[in-house]
Design goal:
Layout: H1 2-27, H2 36-54, H3 56-74, H4 86-176, H5 187-218, E1 227-229, H6 231-242, E2 250-255, E3 262-264, H7 266-283, E4 289-297, E5 301-307, H8 344-354, E6 359-363, E7 370-377
Parallel strand pairs: 2-4
Antiparallel strand pairs: 1-3, 4-5, 5-7, 6-7
Amino acid sequence: MTVKWIHSRWASYVLATVAIGVLTTLLIPLRSEINTTTVGFAFLLLVVAVAIIWGSGPALLASVVGMLCYNFFFLPPIYKFTIADPQNWVALTAFFITALAVGQLSARAKRRAEEAEAGRAENRRLYEELQEAFERASEAEALRRSERIKSALLDAVTHDLRTPLTSIKGSATLLLEDGEQTEAFTPAEQKTMLRLISDDADRLDSFVESIVDLARIEAGDIKLSRNWGSVEEIIEAALARAEPLMRQHQLKILVENELPVIRVDARAVAEVIYTLLDNATKYAPAGTCITIKANRAPGEMVQISVMDEGPGIPRHLRQRVFEKFVHIGGAPIGSGRPEGIGMGLSIAKGIVDAHGGLIWIGDGEGAKGAEVNFTVPVGDDESDTSPTRAVERLAHNGE
Protein backbone atom coordinates (compact mmCIF):
# COMPACT_ATOMS: atom_id res chain seq x y z
CA MET A 1 0.00 0.00 0.00
CA THR A 2 2.89 2.40 0.87
CA VAL A 3 4.77 1.59 -2.36
CA LYS A 4 1.66 2.26 -4.39
CA TRP A 5 1.19 5.63 -2.64
CA ILE A 6 4.86 6.60 -3.35
CA HIS A 7 4.45 5.71 -7.01
CA SER A 8 1.24 7.75 -7.15
CA ARG A 9 2.94 10.78 -5.61
CA TRP A 10 5.89 10.55 -7.97
CA ALA A 11 3.52 10.20 -10.91
CA SER A 12 1.82 13.48 -9.98
CA TYR A 13 5.20 15.31 -9.95
CA VAL A 14 6.13 13.82 -13.34
CA LEU A 15 2.74 14.70 -14.82
CA ALA A 16 3.00 18.27 -13.49
CA THR A 17 6.41 18.66 -15.16
CA VAL A 18 5.15 17.12 -18.39
CA ALA A 19 2.16 19.50 -18.38
CA ILE A 20 4.49 22.51 -18.14
CA GLY A 21 6.60 21.06 -20.98
CA VAL A 22 3.56 20.51 -23.22
CA LEU A 23 2.29 24.06 -22.60
CA THR A 24 5.75 25.48 -23.34
CA THR A 25 5.91 23.49 -26.59
CA LEU A 26 2.51 24.82 -27.65
CA LEU A 27 3.38 28.45 -26.83
CA ILE A 28 6.84 28.63 -28.43
CA PRO A 29 5.51 28.88 -32.04
CA LEU A 30 3.22 31.72 -30.89
CA ARG A 31 5.90 33.94 -29.33
CA SER A 32 5.75 36.49 -32.11
CA GLU A 33 1.95 36.77 -31.92
CA ILE A 34 1.36 36.95 -28.14
CA ASN A 35 3.03 39.05 -25.48
CA THR A 36 4.81 37.81 -22.38
CA THR A 37 1.91 38.76 -20.10
CA THR A 38 -0.41 36.35 -21.90
CA VAL A 39 2.25 33.63 -21.66
CA GLY A 40 2.59 34.29 -17.93
CA PHE A 41 -1.19 33.95 -17.42
CA ALA A 42 -1.18 30.67 -19.35
CA PHE A 43 1.52 29.25 -17.06
CA LEU A 44 -0.34 30.61 -14.04
CA LEU A 45 -3.57 28.85 -15.04
CA LEU A 46 -1.70 25.59 -15.50
CA VAL A 47 -0.17 25.89 -12.03
CA VAL A 48 -3.68 26.40 -10.59
CA ALA A 49 -4.92 23.32 -12.47
CA VAL A 50 -2.02 21.24 -11.15
CA ALA A 51 -2.74 22.40 -7.59
CA ILE A 52 -6.40 21.46 -7.88
CA ILE A 53 -5.70 18.05 -9.43
CA TRP A 54 -2.55 16.87 -7.64
CA GLY A 55 -2.05 19.14 -4.65
CA SER A 56 0.52 21.58 -3.28
CA GLY A 57 3.75 19.59 -3.92
CA PRO A 58 3.26 19.16 -7.66
CA ALA A 59 1.98 22.77 -7.85
CA LEU A 60 5.22 24.01 -6.25
CA LEU A 61 7.25 22.03 -8.76
CA ALA A 62 5.11 23.34 -11.60
CA SER A 63 5.69 26.92 -10.36
CA VAL A 64 9.48 26.50 -10.39
CA VAL A 65 9.61 24.71 -13.77
CA GLY A 66 7.13 27.18 -15.23
CA MET A 67 9.25 30.13 -14.03
CA LEU A 68 12.34 28.61 -15.63
CA CYS A 69 10.55 27.92 -18.93
CA TYR A 70 9.02 31.39 -18.89
CA ASN A 71 12.48 32.92 -18.40
CA PHE A 72 14.34 30.66 -20.84
CA PHE A 73 11.89 30.60 -23.75
CA PHE A 74 9.89 33.82 -23.53
CA LEU A 75 11.82 36.61 -21.78
CA PRO A 76 14.63 38.22 -23.77
CA PRO A 77 17.33 37.25 -24.23
CA ILE A 78 15.65 33.99 -25.31
CA TYR A 79 17.34 30.66 -24.58
CA LYS A 80 19.33 32.15 -21.73
CA PHE A 81 18.68 32.27 -18.00
CA THR A 82 19.43 35.96 -17.95
CA ILE A 83 17.11 38.95 -18.24
CA ALA A 84 18.13 42.12 -20.09
CA ASP A 85 15.22 44.38 -19.15
CA PRO A 86 14.73 45.11 -15.40
CA GLN A 87 10.95 45.19 -16.02
CA ASN A 88 11.11 41.54 -17.00
CA TRP A 89 12.71 40.79 -13.63
CA VAL A 90 9.68 42.35 -12.03
CA ALA A 91 7.37 40.33 -14.31
CA LEU A 92 9.25 37.08 -13.62
CA THR A 93 9.28 37.66 -9.87
CA ALA A 94 5.58 38.60 -9.88
CA PHE A 95 4.80 35.49 -11.92
CA PHE A 96 6.69 33.18 -9.59
CA ILE A 97 5.24 34.62 -6.40
CA THR A 98 1.73 34.66 -7.86
CA ALA A 99 2.02 31.12 -9.22
CA LEU A 100 3.39 29.88 -5.92
CA ALA A 101 0.71 31.61 -3.82
CA VAL A 102 -2.21 30.68 -6.07
CA GLY A 103 -0.99 27.11 -6.34
CA GLN A 104 -0.70 26.77 -2.57
CA LEU A 105 -4.10 28.39 -1.98
CA SER A 106 -5.75 26.17 -4.58
CA ALA A 107 -4.12 23.09 -3.07
CA ARG A 108 -5.23 24.15 0.40
CA ALA A 109 -8.78 24.73 -0.85
CA LYS A 110 -8.77 21.29 -2.43
CA ARG A 111 -7.44 19.75 0.77
CA ARG A 112 -10.14 21.43 2.84
CA ALA A 113 -12.79 20.32 0.37
CA GLU A 114 -11.52 16.76 0.66
CA GLU A 115 -11.50 17.02 4.44
CA ALA A 116 -15.03 18.42 4.40
CA GLU A 117 -16.18 15.60 2.14
CA ALA A 118 -14.46 13.09 4.40
CA GLY A 119 -16.20 14.72 7.36
CA ARG A 120 -19.56 14.51 5.60
CA ALA A 121 -18.92 10.86 4.77
CA GLU A 122 -18.02 10.20 8.40
CA ASN A 123 -21.14 12.04 9.55
CA ARG A 124 -23.25 9.98 7.16
CA ARG A 125 -21.64 6.81 8.46
CA LEU A 126 -22.22 7.83 12.07
CA TYR A 127 -25.79 8.86 11.27
CA GLU A 128 -26.47 5.52 9.61
CA GLU A 129 -24.96 3.69 12.57
CA LEU A 130 -27.04 5.79 14.95
CA GLN A 131 -30.16 5.16 12.89
CA GLU A 132 -29.46 1.44 12.90
CA ALA A 133 -28.94 1.58 16.65
CA PHE A 134 -32.26 3.41 17.09
CA GLU A 135 -34.00 0.89 14.84
CA ARG A 136 -32.56 -1.98 16.83
CA ALA A 137 -33.60 -0.27 20.06
CA SER A 138 -37.08 0.39 18.63
CA GLU A 139 -37.39 -3.22 17.54
CA ALA A 140 -36.30 -4.38 20.98
CA GLU A 141 -38.77 -2.00 22.64
CA ALA A 142 -41.52 -3.14 20.25
CA LEU A 143 -40.75 -6.76 21.13
CA ARG A 144 -40.84 -5.93 24.85
CA ARG A 145 -44.16 -4.11 24.43
CA SER A 146 -45.51 -6.97 22.36
CA GLU A 147 -44.50 -9.48 25.00
CA ARG A 148 -46.00 -7.29 27.72
CA ILE A 149 -49.26 -6.94 25.79
CA LYS A 150 -49.34 -10.68 25.09
CA SER A 151 -48.82 -11.37 28.77
CA ALA A 152 -51.55 -8.89 29.76
CA LEU A 153 -53.90 -10.29 27.14
CA LEU A 154 -53.20 -13.82 28.33
CA ASP A 155 -53.95 -12.80 31.91
CA ALA A 156 -57.16 -11.06 30.81
CA VAL A 157 -58.24 -14.00 28.69
CA THR A 158 -57.40 -16.45 31.47
CA HIS A 159 -59.46 -14.51 33.99
CA ASP A 160 -62.27 -13.06 31.90
CA LEU A 161 -62.88 -16.15 29.80
CA ARG A 162 -62.20 -18.92 32.28
CA THR A 163 -64.25 -17.43 35.13
CA PRO A 164 -67.55 -17.05 33.23
CA LEU A 165 -66.95 -20.30 31.35
CA THR A 166 -66.49 -22.14 34.63
CA SER A 167 -69.66 -20.57 35.97
CA ILE A 168 -71.63 -21.41 32.81
CA LYS A 169 -70.30 -24.96 32.77
CA GLY A 170 -71.11 -25.49 36.45
CA SER A 171 -74.64 -24.11 36.20
CA ALA A 172 -75.39 -26.01 33.00
CA THR A 173 -74.07 -29.25 34.53
CA LEU A 174 -76.26 -28.83 37.61
CA LEU A 175 -79.32 -28.19 35.46
CA LEU A 176 -78.58 -31.24 33.29
CA GLU A 177 -78.17 -33.42 36.37
CA ASP A 178 -81.28 -31.97 37.97
CA GLY A 179 -83.46 -34.85 36.82
CA GLU A 180 -81.11 -37.44 38.29
CA GLN A 181 -81.11 -35.91 41.76
CA THR A 182 -83.43 -37.02 44.54
CA GLU A 183 -84.36 -33.47 45.32
CA ALA A 184 -84.90 -31.38 42.17
CA PHE A 185 -84.14 -27.68 42.02
CA THR A 186 -87.04 -25.37 42.62
CA PRO A 187 -88.16 -23.14 39.72
CA ALA A 188 -86.61 -20.16 41.52
CA GLU A 189 -83.27 -21.95 41.81
CA GLN A 190 -83.41 -22.98 38.16
CA LYS A 191 -84.17 -19.38 37.16
CA THR A 192 -81.20 -18.14 39.22
CA MET A 193 -78.84 -20.54 37.48
CA LEU A 194 -80.23 -19.65 34.04
CA ARG A 195 -79.81 -15.96 34.82
CA LEU A 196 -76.24 -16.68 35.90
CA ILE A 197 -75.60 -18.44 32.59
CA SER A 198 -77.13 -15.54 30.67
CA ASP A 199 -75.12 -12.91 32.57
CA ASP A 200 -71.84 -14.75 32.11
CA ALA A 201 -72.59 -15.30 28.41
CA ASP A 202 -73.17 -11.54 28.10
CA ARG A 203 -69.85 -10.97 29.86
CA LEU A 204 -68.07 -13.23 27.37
CA ASP A 205 -69.77 -11.46 24.48
CA SER A 206 -68.72 -8.08 25.91
CA PHE A 207 -65.13 -9.29 26.23
CA VAL A 208 -64.99 -10.41 22.60
CA GLU A 209 -66.62 -7.18 21.41
CA SER A 210 -64.07 -5.15 23.38
CA ILE A 211 -61.20 -7.02 21.75
CA VAL A 212 -62.69 -6.44 18.29
CA ASP A 213 -63.36 -2.75 18.96
CA LEU A 214 -59.85 -2.18 20.26
CA ALA A 215 -58.34 -3.93 17.24
CA ARG A 216 -60.48 -1.77 14.93
CA ILE A 217 -59.40 1.43 16.68
CA GLU A 218 -55.70 0.51 16.53
CA ALA A 219 -56.06 -0.32 12.82
CA GLY A 220 -57.64 3.11 12.21
CA ASP A 221 -60.80 1.41 11.01
CA ILE A 222 -63.24 3.20 13.30
CA LYS A 223 -65.89 5.04 11.29
CA LEU A 224 -68.10 7.71 12.79
CA SER A 225 -71.65 8.53 11.80
CA ARG A 226 -71.72 12.23 12.61
CA ASN A 227 -75.01 14.03 13.13
CA TRP A 228 -76.03 17.19 14.92
CA GLY A 229 -77.27 16.66 18.46
CA SER A 230 -77.41 18.25 21.89
CA VAL A 231 -75.01 17.41 24.70
CA GLU A 232 -77.95 16.93 27.08
CA GLU A 233 -79.45 14.19 24.90
CA ILE A 234 -76.12 12.36 24.69
CA ILE A 235 -75.71 12.49 28.47
CA GLU A 236 -79.27 11.23 28.95
CA ALA A 237 -78.58 8.29 26.61
CA ALA A 238 -75.48 7.36 28.62
CA LEU A 239 -77.35 7.68 31.93
CA ALA A 240 -80.21 5.48 30.70
CA ARG A 241 -77.76 2.69 30.04
CA ALA A 242 -75.82 3.30 33.27
CA GLU A 243 -78.96 3.48 35.45
CA PRO A 244 -78.42 0.03 37.05
CA LEU A 245 -74.84 1.04 37.93
CA MET A 246 -75.87 4.32 39.55
CA ARG A 247 -78.31 2.91 42.09
CA GLN A 248 -75.84 3.11 44.97
CA HIS A 249 -74.52 6.57 44.10
CA GLN A 250 -75.83 10.10 44.05
CA LEU A 251 -75.84 11.93 40.73
CA LYS A 252 -75.25 15.59 39.92
CA ILE A 253 -75.47 17.02 36.41
CA LEU A 254 -74.05 20.47 35.62
CA VAL A 255 -74.57 21.57 32.02
CA GLU A 256 -73.68 25.10 30.96
CA ASN A 257 -76.59 27.12 29.65
CA GLU A 258 -76.95 27.51 25.89
CA LEU A 259 -74.34 24.95 24.95
CA PRO A 260 -74.08 24.68 21.15
CA VAL A 261 -75.23 21.53 19.44
CA ILE A 262 -72.35 19.31 18.38
CA ARG A 263 -71.79 17.27 15.25
CA VAL A 264 -70.58 13.91 16.54
CA ASP A 265 -71.40 10.23 16.54
CA ALA A 266 -73.85 10.49 19.42
CA ARG A 267 -73.82 6.76 20.15
CA ALA A 268 -70.02 6.68 20.33
CA VAL A 269 -69.80 9.75 22.60
CA ALA A 270 -72.51 8.29 24.83
CA GLU A 271 -70.36 5.15 25.03
CA VAL A 272 -67.43 7.25 26.28
CA ILE A 273 -69.61 8.82 29.00
CA TYR A 274 -70.96 5.39 29.97
CA THR A 275 -67.41 4.01 30.26
CA LEU A 276 -66.43 6.88 32.57
CA LEU A 277 -69.55 6.37 34.68
CA ASP A 278 -68.85 2.63 34.83
CA ASN A 279 -65.33 3.31 36.11
CA ALA A 280 -66.57 5.88 38.63
CA THR A 281 -69.17 3.51 40.10
CA LYS A 282 -66.56 0.75 40.38
CA TYR A 283 -63.99 2.72 42.33
CA ALA A 284 -66.03 5.30 44.24
CA PRO A 285 -67.58 4.11 47.55
CA ALA A 286 -71.34 3.56 47.65
CA GLY A 287 -73.33 6.60 48.67
CA THR A 288 -70.83 9.10 47.23
CA CYS A 289 -71.69 11.60 44.52
CA ILE A 290 -70.79 11.27 40.86
CA THR A 291 -70.91 14.50 38.85
CA ILE A 292 -71.31 14.98 35.11
CA LYS A 293 -70.33 18.42 33.86
CA ALA A 294 -70.46 19.90 30.36
CA ASN A 295 -69.25 23.33 29.32
CA ARG A 296 -67.62 25.25 26.48
CA ALA A 297 -63.90 24.87 25.94
CA PRO A 298 -61.45 26.97 23.90
CA GLY A 299 -61.12 26.34 20.18
CA GLU A 300 -64.79 25.67 19.37
CA MET A 301 -64.82 22.60 21.62
CA VAL A 302 -67.21 21.24 24.22
CA GLN A 303 -65.74 19.62 27.34
CA ILE A 304 -67.51 16.83 29.19
CA SER A 305 -66.26 15.68 32.60
CA VAL A 306 -67.13 12.83 34.96
CA MET A 307 -66.02 13.34 38.57
CA ASP A 308 -66.18 10.93 41.47
CA GLU A 309 -65.26 10.90 45.15
CA GLY A 310 -63.17 7.75 45.05
CA PRO A 311 -59.47 7.22 45.78
CA GLY A 312 -58.40 9.07 42.64
CA ILE A 313 -55.62 8.14 40.22
CA PRO A 314 -51.94 8.82 41.02
CA ARG A 315 -50.36 11.38 38.70
CA HIS A 316 -47.70 8.99 37.43
CA LEU A 317 -50.42 6.56 36.26
CA ARG A 318 -52.79 9.05 34.65
CA GLN A 319 -51.38 8.60 31.17
CA ARG A 320 -50.91 4.85 31.44
CA VAL A 321 -54.56 4.12 32.28
CA PHE A 322 -55.40 4.81 28.63
CA GLU A 323 -53.15 1.95 27.55
CA LYS A 324 -54.49 -1.54 26.93
CA PHE A 325 -54.93 -3.94 29.85
CA VAL A 326 -53.74 -1.42 32.45
CA HIS A 327 -55.37 -1.52 35.89
CA ILE A 328 -54.87 1.01 38.64
CA GLY A 329 -56.04 -1.32 41.37
CA GLY A 330 -59.01 -3.45 42.20
CA ALA A 331 -62.55 -2.33 42.83
CA PRO A 332 -63.36 -1.67 46.48
CA ILE A 333 -63.96 -4.77 48.59
CA GLY A 334 -67.64 -5.57 48.82
CA SER A 335 -68.57 -3.59 45.73
CA GLY A 336 -69.67 -6.74 43.96
CA ARG A 337 -68.34 -5.34 40.71
CA PRO A 338 -65.82 -7.14 38.47
CA GLU A 339 -62.60 -5.27 37.83
CA GLY A 340 -62.88 -5.37 34.06
CA ILE A 341 -60.15 -6.15 31.57
CA GLY A 342 -58.50 -2.76 31.21
CA MET A 343 -59.80 -1.85 27.77
CA GLY A 344 -62.61 0.61 28.52
CA LEU A 345 -60.47 3.74 28.68
CA SER A 346 -58.40 2.60 25.68
CA ILE A 347 -61.57 2.37 23.61
CA ALA A 348 -62.85 5.68 25.01
CA LYS A 349 -59.58 7.36 24.00
CA GLY A 350 -59.84 5.88 20.50
CA ILE A 351 -63.35 7.31 20.11
CA VAL A 352 -62.32 10.74 21.37
CA ASP A 353 -59.23 10.76 19.13
CA ALA A 354 -61.37 9.82 16.12
CA HIS A 355 -63.50 12.91 16.81
CA GLY A 356 -60.39 15.12 16.98
CA GLY A 357 -60.69 15.70 20.73
CA LEU A 358 -58.54 15.09 23.79
CA ILE A 359 -59.05 13.00 26.91
CA TRP A 360 -57.15 13.41 30.18
CA ILE A 361 -57.41 12.86 33.93
CA GLY A 362 -57.31 15.50 36.62
CA ASP A 363 -58.04 15.81 40.33
CA GLY A 364 -61.60 15.71 41.55
CA GLU A 365 -63.26 18.62 43.30
CA GLY A 366 -61.22 19.65 46.32
CA ALA A 367 -58.38 17.37 45.14
CA LYS A 368 -60.57 14.40 46.10
CA GLY A 369 -61.40 11.59 43.72
CA ALA A 370 -60.77 11.56 39.97
CA GLU A 371 -61.98 13.81 37.20
CA VAL A 372 -61.88 12.40 33.68
CA ASN A 373 -62.31 15.06 30.99
CA PHE A 374 -62.67 14.83 27.25
CA THR A 375 -63.42 17.29 24.49
CA VAL A 376 -65.25 17.02 21.18
CA PRO A 377 -65.46 19.69 18.47
CA VAL A 378 -68.62 21.67 17.96
CA GLY A 379 -68.43 20.72 14.26
CA ASP A 380 -69.06 22.53 11.00
CA ASP A 381 -71.85 22.87 8.48
CA GLU A 382 -70.53 20.18 6.19
CA SER A 383 -73.34 17.81 5.31
CA ASP A 384 -72.96 14.21 6.29
CA THR A 385 -74.08 12.68 3.01
CA SER A 386 -71.04 10.53 2.21
CA PRO A 387 -71.60 6.82 2.84
CA THR A 388 -70.02 5.90 6.16
CA ARG A 389 -70.24 2.84 8.31
CA ALA A 390 -71.26 3.67 11.85
CA VAL A 391 -69.58 2.12 14.81
CA GLU A 392 -71.44 -1.18 15.03
CA ARG A 393 -70.23 -2.22 18.44
CA LEU A 394 -68.60 -0.33 21.25
CA ALA A 395 -67.18 -1.69 24.48
CA HIS A 396 -69.66 -2.53 27.22
CA ASN A 397 -66.90 -3.55 29.57
CA GLY A 398 -65.39 -0.76 31.73
CA GLU A 399 -61.88 -0.18 32.96
